Amino acid sequence: MSTVLKGKPTADALDLDTSARVEALKAKGVTPCLAILRVGEREDDLAYERGALKRAEKNGVAVKQVLLPEDVTQEALLAAIDGLNKDDAVHGVLMFRPLPKHLDENEACEALAPEKDVDGITRGSMASIYSGKGAGFAPCTAESCIEILKYNGIEMSGKRAVVIGRSLVIGKPVAMLLMANNATVTVCHSRTKDMPSVVKEADIVIACLGRAEMITADYFTPGQIVLDVGINWSEEKNKLVGDVAFDEVEPIVDAITPVPGGVGSGTTAVLIRHVVEAAEKATA
Amino acid sequence: MSTVLKGKPTADALDLDTSARVEALKAKGVTPCLAILRVGEREDDLAYERGALKRAEKNGVAVKQVLLPEDVTQEALLAAIDGLNKDDAVHGVLMFRPLPKHLDENEACEALAPEKDVDGITRGSMASIYSGKGAGFAPCTAESCIEILKYNGIEMSGKRAVVIGRSLVIGKPVAMLLMANNATVTVCHSRTKDMPSVVKEADIVIACLGRAEMITADYFTPGQIVLDVGINWSEEKNKLVGDVAFDEVEPIVDAITPVPGGVGSGTTAVLIRHVVEAAEKATA
Asked: Whole-prediction pTM value?
């Protein structure tokens, strides 16, 4: 029987700090504001947006929604980003990705003002994450993993961490953050041979390959801490599932985050804190 | 008895390609030019500079030396960098580091024009290395490791690689390059527990922690490939030694680079190739 590491207590603790900082900003006449830029009506964007709206409201953070049609042109998208860059009332921008295929996503990311990049999508933010130097924010989901570990008193220093997945959205940044916290980090991916034996070496496992319940009982050993970043729709089970086969892995390991209600639940709390930090910097 | 992987054959193979490209550029009236910016007279800077000058001459690449006194002001250093940025005859700039302590090294690095950053010191280059996207060059020593593996037909895909060291100059970039070549990469550092057992898991070991002969026989097992990036002066032995205790490790492993004459011998060849690539881009 393992501990189920829900994200909510971590998020609540972050909110406590965030909302106090929002009050301090408001006392100075500044209302922190997140702009959400969404192209089209993808179901997972909408779900995340609902969570972000709720979290912002809870913390007293304003939200400006910019909704563009699925067939928006690159020019119109860039104009919308430019408008948010120039709007002094907006402190952070969340742009949902992936963008529709006809758009140049790299160009759109780079168009965003670095100081408003609260989800770590610009090259400047990447340089900060990679080097451990500079003002850029990490992607919120990667940071949510670290916050959940910290909140639950799980030591990273000197521990072996295995990250399954090497994406720029989550695998690479969470590896860099774990390394910055003095973990000994291994990154696995589609070309890794005998992945179960590599994952078994870990004290902390971060699953973020984006494939439903791919990581099964044979990857695990007692004593491990498992953070499951995957959010996948299972046709078979007719519900959301993680990258880890929760039902068979939970009895083996020491602690595991559920899906939903785990890492994802911390993500919007990190997002809103980033917006508040950006507002503090803009006001300082 | 293991194979001693000297850097020279790799460097010679790189030079063969580079010098042909230099000829092609000269036929268009362009002579690729490396600027070397050195502050003071540090012995290891001077040693590397001699190697770079020789390599440049061998390949028909021009060198412009900018030598500043040890007590140069930040303003004078930035002015020198600005002058090189504006000089169209200069295609790449190598600035020796560490700079003397009174100077702001981060600011100096960022002052360099990204397209002339042939040793991967700017944040733009870091974002390229981290993301695998963009035009920035990797630090030459990190890339020399990869070139030596490739030249010697050592497969990286699916292999386990352990990098000992997490510096921005070598540990982090070589880890990213190995990952881009589909190795399963683990990064060890000063906080890693039981490092010998971690290193024993590797097919490929990159030692770059910068401490003389710290990595001893107990870290290794037969079949491993060892690249020793360290260059340290041993008072005891009165000669240059690597981070690996060569004499006791060489009989155990499959192949190992010597110090000197290993990874370092490939570095200037990569540097000069970067200068030529930068000249090609500037001319295109």
From this structure: 0.96
